[in-house]
Design brief:
heterodimer, A: Rossmann fold, 2 domains, 6-stranded mixed sheet, B: mainly alpha, MetI-like fold, globular, membrane (chain B), transmembrane (chain B), MetI-like (chain B), cell membrane (chain B), transmembrane helix (chain B)
């Protein structure tokens, strides 16, 4: 589905050239949920920019659905950290717009939006402007918008990073319950080790910049996943393994990672 | 219902003050504290305005001023809007022109009036051009500021899912610039009446500005005051119309006391 082939990215500024990504390669298979975990400043945002086509990599290629899409936008459904709903469009109108930009016919986009808002219990907000929604609800709409978009790969960029811990856990459960009925290829970037373990099929651990892959692991729990998972011994083990990588990375980077 | 009471409670204090001021003015003239050939009393101004030999002419001049204001306002704001959109879509050109636009804010454009008259004579053209110029700059600058001030994360999102330049402009940048555009329009609205009357004073044939000049020269202070009041009313009405339009167009804005967007849960 997604293939990132030896992508490097450096930025030049007055103080010299800063290498952010170094020959990074990764894949996401059809219907697979993959998470990327790494210390802050490990170039995760840059990686998403390159995959989404907003930034041209210095070297390497990005293939989506078997097609070379390096530097081309419009091939991913995107859920950013901030809900990024247009304040002058209603909840349903926001979903509709993103779908039509991606090429869905207007009437179909509209009915799809309404059906799904109903299904996830947000029907009463379909005609409301985003500012009346809480942060958690805005993120639900934002997720729904990405889920309904016709692009086959979903990029979730720290989608719950701005929410409080409790809302965050609710949202993870909610996201999982919807995703498990409707498997799309997902690439998630997160700070939270537990979030990655709870949600994904596979986890990729990145180092601090220049980002290289430190470790990669299959998450062995079957689906549908249960909340009790978080107390499983294997869960703890994997968590510690990722944690050690991040802690080492932080030490090497001079202790400024977190 | 609460709203109505609220409105009333906001309206009556300034209305009362205005009433007291008018009463003082009337009293000052009635008790001959000021000479009524210098400053006429409010009652006399109204009487003079409605006199059968004044009212029709007053209305004719009002019509002329309204026409000039409307042409200038419409032309100037349209030009400002279009240039702002063009400059926004052509960043290279923008870099050359934008600083000059900002600088032009400090030029009192009204001083171009006599030059316009010199170049184009005493017809409608020089006056309309002056009003257009005056309305052009505030709209253009406000609109450009609004277009550039578009939320970066929204822009990122829209580009990521595949919006091209046009979709970005129509769906994101233009709607997010509307609020700034309306502040520009409000400034232009009051400037347009100001500059229209000024232009009419330069060649006092038609319009309230011209009528005012002729009335003062003929020592008819009541008529001068009456035209002044009409000019003020035109200015307030135009401003009010823009404000109403703004409310009709921008309905999504969070009200007072509600939180803005992108806040925590």
């Amino acid at each position: 589905m997604l293939e990132v082939k030896k992508v490097s990215k450096s930025f030049a500024d007055a103080r010299g050239v800063k290498e952010v990504l170094r020959e990074l390669s990764l894949q996401v298979a059809e219907g697979e949920f993959v998470s990327i975990v790494g210390p802050s400043g490990s170039g995760k945002t840059t990686l998403f920019g390159v995959i989404g086509g907003l930034q041209q990599p210095t070297a390497g290629e990005v293939h989506i659905g078997g097609q070379d899409t390096t530097g081309e936008t419009g091939h991913v459904a995107y859920m950013p950290q901030q809900a990024s709903l247009l304040p002058w469009r209603t909840v349903a109108g926001n979903i509709e717009l993103s779908l039509t930009i991606a090429g869905v016919e207007k009437r179909k986009a509209r009915s799809e939006a309404l059906v799904w808002l109903e299904r996830v219990g947000l029907a009463e907000y379909a005609g409301a402007y985003p500012h009346v929604l809480s942060g958690g609800m805005q993120q639900r709409v934002s997720f729904l918008r990405a889920l309904l978009s016709p692009q086959r790969l979903m990029l979730l960029d720290e989608p719950f990073g701005a929410l409080d811990a409790l809302t965050r856990e609710h949202m993870q459960k909610w996201l999982l319950s919807i995703w498990e009925q409707n498997r799309r290829s997902v690439l998630l970037v997160t700070h939270s080790i537990e979030e990655a373990l709870y949600l994904s099929d596979r986890i990729i651990v990145l180092s601090a910049s220049p980002a290289v892959i430190l470790d990669e692991m299959i998450v062995p729990f079957e689906r549908p996943r249960k909340e009790e998972l978080r107390e499983d011994a294997r869960f703890m083990e994997l968590r510690n393994r990722i944690y050690r990588h991040l802690a080492e990375g932080a030490k090497e980077a001079g202790g400024d990672g977190n | 219902m609460d709203n109505k009471r609220n409105l009333w409670s906001r309206v009556w204090p300034p209305a009362l003050v205005l009433g007291i001021l008018l009463a003082c003015w009337q009293a000052a003239v009635s008790f001959a504290l000021v000479k009524d050939w210098m400053i006429p009393s409010p009652v006399n101004v109204v009487k003079a305005a409605f006199a059968s030999n004044v009212w029709p002419r007053l209305m004719e001049h009002t019509g002329a001023t309204l026409g000039l204001t409307a042409i200038g306002f419409a032309g100037g704001t349209a030009a400002g809007f279009v240039l702002a959109a063009l400059l926004h879509l052509l960043p290279g050109v923008r870099r050359g022109i934008y600083p000059l636009l900002i600088l032009s804010q400090n030029v009192p454009i009204i001083i171009l009036g006599p030059i316009m008259t010199m170049l184009f004579g005493y017809g409608l053209l020089p006056k309309a051009l002056l009003v257009m110029l005056v309305c052009f700059f505030p709209v253009c600058i406000a609109m450009l500021g609004g277009l550039t001030g578009t939320d970066e994360s929204l822009r990122n999102y829209m580009r990521m899912i595949g919006s091209g330049k046009w979709t970005l402009f129509w769906r994101l940048e233009l709607p997010s610039a509307l609020q700034s555009l309306f502040s520009g329009l409000k400034i232009a609205a009051s400037y347009s009446v100001l500059s229209a009357t000024f232009a009419e004073m330069l060649s006092p044939k038609m319009g309230l500005g011209g009528y005012m000049v002729l009335s003062t020269r003929g020592y008819m202070p009541e008529r001068a005051f009456a035209s002044a009041i009409l000019i003020i009313m035109i200015s307030l009405t135009l401003f009010g119309l823009i404000a109403l339009l703004e409310r009709a167009v921008i309905r999504w804005r969070p009200g007072k006391g509600e939180t803005g967007r992108h806040v925590g849960s």
